[in-house]
Fold these 2 entries.
Entry 1:
Amino acid sequence: MNAVATLLRDDIGAGDAPEGVTALVAAIRARFGDALQAVLMYGSCRRRGNARDGLVDLLALVDGYRHAYGGTRGAFGNALLPPNVYYLEVEDPAAPGDDVLRSKYAVVSLAAFERRCAGGLDAYFWARFSQPARAVYAAQPAVLDRIATARAAAAERFAREAAPLMAPDTLDAEAFWTRALRASYRCELRPEPVSAARALVRADAAYWQALAAALLPGLPGVRDAADGWHFDAPRPRRAAARVKWGLRRAWGRTLNVARLLKAAGTFTNGIDYLVWKVERHSGVRIEPTPRMRRHPRLAALGLAWRLWRGKALQ
């Protein structure tokens, strides 16, 4: 592994998993058996170190979709547009009968994870999994090495794609990653406040500083400066980067909605989840009907048109 992969290998193995995550992982292992290769925890619950206050974000990596699903429609949907996303509730072992642990977990094959982190116009994988994550299950240590190498490719791709957007300017690690994350948020129907990306970077400041120090000096047009790094690029390269990110926003938002519509059929109360998610990310509120809840997949098709009319995709 190179220096970046080593840094990310240390990241996924650092610290203890929050209490309660073990019960969630056990339920995922029960579903996928020996097809499950690893589970990563990421997102706000990882940052807070608390699995009991919120919806825990997990990524389940499997060795193949046919092995994991047995050749069902889930396997086809996951191969066509990864990841599949599911909702999970388990009883909190620390408070049986009283509290429930909740998770939203995504499923993708390890091979697809490696491909998607390495490239593609869609930033879903390489922007998301450049961020800190914690391995809460691994079938064997070699799997963690593959994950670290894939995440290193993701971080390198993220930094390389974001760098031309910074020119001409001099930025420290916090400013660089904050602006890079804001660019990726705009690809996901995420009307986050300006402060959200900065707060995310500050929550793991040492991680982002180390990642910038490992990646930025090797990028074209980037040189060391007294207070960080200076970014420079010819005007045509800066213009091409802006065009590419414009295309990425259009494509990313389209895929984001497609994934949400797919989640309507994989979630318990999927339509309720979908309209909540759309309202949170776009501001468009659509009240689900009993008929929509009975037929979530059919309702999702009609909802796509209503979202378009409501300008949620624009």
Entry 2:
Amino acid sequence: MGGGTRAWARGTMFSATVLAAVVLASAVVGRPAATAAASPPVAAPDPCGPAWTTGWQASPQAVVPPARLAGRTLRMIVRPQVGGAQVRVRLSNRFGRAPLPIGRVTLARAGAGPALVPGTVRAVTFGAVPAGASADPVLPPGADVVSDPVPVAAEAGRPLAVSLVLPQAPAVVAEHPVALQTSYLSAPGDATLDAGGGAFTTPVASWMVLTGVEVLAPHPVNAVVAMGDSLVDGVGSGNDTDSRFTDALSARLVRRGGTATMAVLNAGIARNELLAGRGPAGGDTPVERLGPEAVGLPGATDVVLHVGTNDVAAGRGAAEIVAGLVRFADTARAAGLRVHLTTITPSDRGVRGTSRGRAVRERVNRWVREHGAEHADGVFDFAGAVADPADPRRLRARYDAGDGLHLSAAGYRALAEAVDLTRLSGSPCLAGRSPARVALAAR
């Protein structure tokens, strides 16, 4: 595929050796002899000029979709965290074993519900199209594909709508099931140009095929990827409230402004485990997801890992979990990312609340607090931030979403407050620039 299209294979595992190759610089083995007529000097590009960065992403799982998708239009609502005059859309067939044809794709600024802001609908294209050929994209099996730039103005926190037609229901679709954001499915037909939204009769609670939005920012904006399980995904925070941990951390960074500003990208998957991939039931492991969901993202410089409670529930031992944390951290750092480890938040329910479950969690947390910095650039005590002061083995009541495991909006804000912002990379090119000037705004 040509033009503005980028694609990369999913792969099955990103080891430290493989990821290190991403950042390995080539050695200069020699240079040609000087010539009589020297070439005129070439001005170096402005390192703080316009740059693409990832403004939004969702982590997909391999899901068998309902047959009713065939011949209908999905309208998915997302909120980018970076502003700019052009946008690129990332679609995924990461888990497919066959090419995935896509019908017309459009991008617009979202209005209320499934409606679009009038006059903002733009076609999304995927590379040069030979004369006489269909402009509709076909996603190769095992690949993510990025569109050409689309002239739609993005503002941080203001929703965009990506509409796409699925001519046929694939055997497997890349889907993020716990979006906590309402999207929409149309009646049969191509409704990508329907600005009023009347054709979209069915609410959808997931994002399908769409896995990322990139924005051309006026100045480089770095991004921190939060990776982990349902506590990163935001379960317990409420639908359409934008009150996940990542939303709260983004709000903190926007308030700080200047060089502290970063996009905060959510790579959480409900039921995700550090040590075992769970496919449709919990996604690939964090180390398997590092390549496409952190290393491969424009602008990504940092990753915060919050995972482990599901490994405790699965009966894993503390030594196994610690070894998995070390492997993740070493692999990510070898690929050039700054890594931040967190303690496992408490729970007094089920297996997590047994004497063995508590002992495993406490041993892991002790290691993170005492030795995590030997492998990471930052260590954040999430457990201490939300534990009940009267009994640290359980959540504080106002931080508990009601099941003894997941957090309320207040609990996710407490996690965000536990992040030492000075440990993050920030965005050095934003020194002296207000958030408004770089088109960043609070949610």
